[in-house]
């Protein structure tokens, strides 16, 4: 039912909807109600947000076509395990604030997405 | 400071936007699973994005730009160039990347860190921690 063209159109429509919401939220007077502000805000409480988006970027934009996951079929489970560790780690090691830089977890996520889940 | 009295501003509270993001994410994932298991080859979001990224560097560039926008290192970062200059430079560089894609083959990963650095320098999101009432009080 969904060919490449229709899938592209649906994806683009959802993306444009998010952008319109973001612009709308940025131009009203209510503070902190844009998509970007929420993503940034969430990323300070849980490293899973930058990690997950980094994983997706590594998944989509890795350097080598036909790249195989590092641990074969088990790679998905390794990735899920690492993601859970990041989720729990933020709670357990919450006093080590210097460790939880959003950019650092986005970069590590991109590396994990490239090695464990390349499209 | 007054909130415009219309239906949209009544709906677009922080909580509503958070729920919107969550619903959009779930919808995207459900559709992607459906696309992955159907009989049509190469129609998942991931396959389409990878394919688009190989055709034009603008796709990974925009991805990097948004990542830099959201996950820059400093909570109270200001853009290096004051608006609207930052928007004009960002737009100009994005157009340049788009045009470059017609003449040069750019590996998909290369524009991501470049876009991220630009997003962090020219378009860093700042989070407003205060409520509307606190802002009104401070401005009064």
Strand percentage of chain A, roughly?
under 5%
* Beta strand % of chain B: under 5%
Rg of chain A is 17 Å
The CA-CA distance between the termini of chain A, in Å, is 22 Å
| Overall body shape of chain A | flat
- State the order of secondary-structure elements of chain A, H for helix, E for strand: HHHHH
Written description of the protein model:
The complex is a heterodimer of chains A (119) and B (140). With 119 residues, chain A is mainly alpha-helical. Chain A is built from five helices and no strands. In chain A, helix 3 crosses helix 5. The mean pLDDT of chain A is 86. Chain B is mainly α and 140 residues long. Chain B contains seven helices and no strands. Chain B has helices spanning 7-11, 14-37, 45-55, 58-71, 85-103, 111-122, 132-139. In chain B, helix 4 (58-71) packs across helix 6 (111-122). The relative contact order of chain B is 0.14. Chains A and B meet through helix 1, helix 2, helix 3 and helix 5 of A and helix 2, helix 3 and helix 4 of B.
Keywords:
heterodimer; A: 119 residues; mainly alpha; 69% helix; flat; B: 140 residues; 66% helix
List the helices and strands and how they pair.
The complex is a heterodimer of chains A (119) and B (140).
Chain A: H1 4-27, H2 35-45, H3 48-61, H4 75-92, H5 102-116
Chain B: H1 7-11, H2 14-37, H3 45-55, H4 58-71, H5 85-103, H6 111-122, H7 132-139
Helix pairs in contact in B: 4-6
Structure at a glance:
The complex is a heterodimer of chains A (119) and B (140). With 119 residues, chain A is mostly helical.
